[in-house]
Amino acid sequence: MLNEAASLDRVFQALADPTRRSMVERLSRGPASVSELARPFAMSLAAIVQHLKVLEACGLVRSEKIGRVRACRLEPQALTAVEQWAGERRRTWEHRLDRLGDYLAEQPDEWDTEDEK
Amino acid sequence: MLNEAASLDRVFQALADPTRRSMVERLSRGPASVSELARPFAMSLAAIVQHLKVLEACGLVRSEKIGRVRACRLEPQALTAVEQWAGERRRTWEHRLDRLGDYLAEQPDEWDTEDEK
Lengths: 117, 117
Known about the structure:
homodimer, mainly alpha, 3-stranded antiparallel beta sheet
């Protein structure tokens, strides 16, 4: 928990790149080897491995060598942390708007008051 | 929509910094002036203004000058985009696990088969 902020820093940083977001999207549909991950991209395997290292360093992806193949899979906790962080801020913001609406609804209607005079 | 990926790049990049996440958190509780936003941080007003510019450039925050005060408020759409992006990937991943569970449940139980021999 001490490193929660630092960890969110790295997860958000990792997801700021479109290639890495595509890799996460691919892995959300199931595990893949590095060459399967690389296939849709017009870049070297070395570049993909660099992106993979960033995703592993922040905990979004885990990989393991099985024989001659490196198998990669998504670790959903880091994704959930991002979803929760954004969701909590959005809900706080919406709750504030709701309270503002309640407050305004409780106020006497100035036009009605005007009519009654 | 053409710039949706580029926009997500910038939103994730903006949220990769703990000061900027704290500013978003503060603004989720209601609008604030730049000096109110700066108050909790041990940094210059100029540094806060720089962070504010990053948050505005990606659409997370909007500010407007009212008299001598710059009033800042949260724009929840960018936050929702982050929440949805992460949520969709998580749900795809969970759905895949559910289908795997169903598949395994449909398979004949090897131990039962063994017992029946």
